[in-house]
Design goal:
Blueprint lengths: L8 H10 L1 E5 L4 E3 L7 E15 L5 E7 L6 H8 L7 E14 L1 H5 L4 H20 L1 H4 L1 E4 L3 H5 L7 E2 L18 E5 L3 H12 L5 E6 H7 L1
Parallel strand pairs: 6-7, 6-8, 8-9
Antiparallel strand pairs: 1-5, 2-5, 3-4, 3-5
Helix pairs in contact: 2-4
Length: 214
């Protein structure tokens, strides 16, 4: 367990008691799109390659998971009770700690675990920025006039005051990144979408700053 980023002895005991160590050979498929996520993997040895696969079978590289790390996308899917959106392939002979998904929330009283999950999910936003055209919807909640003066290519303009009547324009099965001029309206929009049942929503802040990250 030397590769685990935890020192809390109680948490380590929980991990030992409730997880299963599994070994995989290089090129084995760990997960396919549509699979039900029952366990969260933490890599102990080796690495996992995560890709987005379209209906034609073409793959788009997303990221690798290395020792001590887990999968941000798996965490998001299991917490929102969605099936896998990606394909995960064992890159090299690997050893994984498989943790039943119910413990993701149950162990939040351990500060180290809570921070680990939070930090991993923060990576999710960066991953979305790298693959935004394939995976995420950008919803610009500025006024129509503001939007016409400049906006992110491919974004959807839904002024904040009309957002509550425009949910039909936003898919619930894809992540959503909200933006505006400074970040205040996009924060409000995130709250509205969350309340409406959108589970995978991120506040991208000001649109011009967000555009520079894409």
């Amino acid at each position: 367990m030397n590769t685990l980023p935890f020192v809390d002895s109680s948490l380590l005991q929980e991990l030992s008691a409730n997880s299963v160590i599994q070994r995989f050979k290089a090129n084995e498929i760990l997960m396919n799109p549509g699979d039900l996520i029952t366990n969260i993997p933490i890599v102990l040895i080796g690495s996992i390659r995560v890709v987005l696969q379209n209906e034609q079978g073409n793959e788009h590289y997303l990221y690798h998971i290395f020792p001590g790390e887990t999968c941000a996308l798996s965490l998001t899917c299991c917490q929102s009770q969605k099936r896998s959106e990606v394909k995960a392939v064992i890159e090299e002979d690997s050893e994984l700690m498989m943790i039943p998904v119910r413990f993701v929330d149950e162990w939040h009283h351990y500060p180290e675990w809570k921070k680990y999950i939070s930090d991993t999910q923060a990576q999710r936003f960066s991953e979305l920025l790298e693959t935004v055209e394939l995976m995420a919807q950008i919803v610009d909640v500025r006024t129509i006039d503001e939007y016409q003066q400049g906006h992110i290519r491919g974004s959807i303009n839904i002024p904040l005051q009309t957002l509550g009547k425009s949910f039909g324009k936003i898919k619930k099965d894809k992540p959503v990144i909200t933006c505006c001029a400074s970040g205040m309206r996009s924060a409000a929009a995130k709250g509205i979408l969350k309340s409406a049942g959108y589970s995978d929503v991120y506040n991208g802040g000001g649109w011009s700053r967000l555009q520079k990250k894409l």
